[in-house]
Amino acid sequence: MYIGVTADLRIRITQHKNGTGSVFTKKYNVAYLLYFEEFIDIEQAIARETQLKNWHRDSKINLIKSLNPEMKDLSYSFLGQDPETSSG
What we know:
Layout: H1 9-18, H2 23-27, H3 42-53, H4 57-67, H5 75-79
């Protein structure tokens, strides 16, 4: 499970789908967006990232399922694409 901060989620999703993100995301094929939060202030975003990284896996899954019960890949709807016709 990958948790990260980005200034542009659209670009980051595309990088992950294309395998051009970080070494970690490429190695572990991190390509699904299950949950995201938006912040105006980068300091708040980094503080939330740090908080979530310290949570146990079960707590992270419960957070995801609270807004995405079926744990569907949200990246296609975020990008305005149809998952059936997208190649990522």
